[in-house]
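--- STAGE predict ---
source: upstream dedup step, 1 unique chain passed
mode: sequence only
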Amino acid sequence: QAEIERSFQRLRTDTIDLIAVHNLIDTETNLAVLRALKEKGRIRYVGVTVWRDEQFPELEAVMKRERLDFVQVNYALDSRLAAERVLPLAAERGVAVMVNVPFGRDRLFKAVKDKPLPDFAAEFGCRSWAQFFLKYVLANEAVTCPIPGMAKAAYVEDNLAAATGRLPDAAERRKMEAFIDAV
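--- STAGE serialize ---
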């Protein structure tokens, strides 16, 4: 309780829009504290975060046991395990999904370094690898928003362009997966 009160003070606000129990640390206790603040109108959305695939079983249990507004999970074109059970469960329960590391902690950029975009990427408006990777994540209907790192203004513009035009359909997503799996 004291820690969250310090957060309100540091942020100089009486209301926090979105807050999560990071890394599933003591979810039962921490979610109770956050829910009490939500009931008082001091927090709008409450959720939990994970950053490793090995945490998915515990995340699923929390999602089934608790009423969450959102979850934050790792999901990328080269890290698709969340799509098997976590993302469908989130959709089923009406839980928003924020995706951390949609570029696979730079693994994807390293894998395609000096490679041209595949020709089929133009079919859904991709002009860069960042757009290719983000459109893949965004095309999963359970995903609410990706959280890409953006150290430069040019990265922001490039990443935002992934939200324009159409997203890849299921067949195109399979082609994207096959392409990345082969590099």
